């Protein structure tokens, strides 16, 4: 699969590396210092990693990963241009500057509305970049969950396949309006900031679908 990356820092860089390891192709974009993108592309291998503008990454990618600081989202989206029909995976969390969701609105709903026409999916946002980098190599029941939300079932299914390729267990929490449980900040009753494995994920999904509290956070050895 061809994947455009807008913001190839800690999380976007991880995603690019994991996608390449799984045999996909990436185009990296959006840096205040483009030589950093060249260096990362060289490290990842010039046969499957390239560098372009955000608009070029959008044109290149069957999937586009948006992974910039919250305050840089407006600039990134402006540079990305038309996202109509494009599957966009949003890894962002609402920290720092920039317009924010109103009370009771999820960051996912807020961001989806900022990307008219995009087939919006949120994922990769609940675990630290270091943890994600380390955990992506795990196998069998030790694999960690990457939660997904979004309102386009087909887009979520495609992204779920990509997440699996990257070395995680994709778990769909539902639509953008119901996914507060996977959003910042870290707090009791949410999955944000917590490790989950497949065995404990279904009970969370069931609780979210039922509008109930999720079970206590699991602990793993
Ligand atoms: N770090 C984590 O543990 C973590 C975990 C889950 C989710 N997230 C979320 O994922 C998103 C990306 O986080 P990250 O930690 O990967 O961020 P990061 O390491 O700072 O990467 C952000 C990327 O955006 C690029 N960028 C381009 N223009 C920018 C501008 N005007 N201002 C700032 N950056 C600009 C940066 O490139 P240059 O620096 O080369 O300009 C950098 O490659 C954030 O929304 C964050 O909340 C982070």
Model description:
With 221 residues, the chain is α/β, with parallel strands linked by helices. The chain has one domain: NAD(P)-binding Rossmann-like Domain (Rossmann fold), CATH 3.40.50. It is built from eight helices and eight strands. The chain has an eight-stranded mixed beta sheet, with helices on both faces. Strand 4, helix 4 and strand 5 form a beta-alpha-beta unit. The longest helix has 13 residues. It is globular and about 45 Å long. The mean pLDDT is 97. The structure holds NADP nicotinamide-adenine-dinucleotide phosphate (NAP). NADP nicotinamide-adenine-dinucleotide phosphate (NAP) binds next to helix 1.
Tell the overall outline.
globular
Mean pLDDT, nearest integer? 97
What is the H level of CATH, i.e. the homologous superfamily?
A: NAD(P)-binding Rossmann-like Domain
Instruction: Please give the order of strands in the largest beta sheet.
Output: 3-2-1-4-5-6-7-8
Please give the count of helices. Answer: 8
Question: How many β-strand runs?
Answer: 8
| Strand content bin | 15-25%
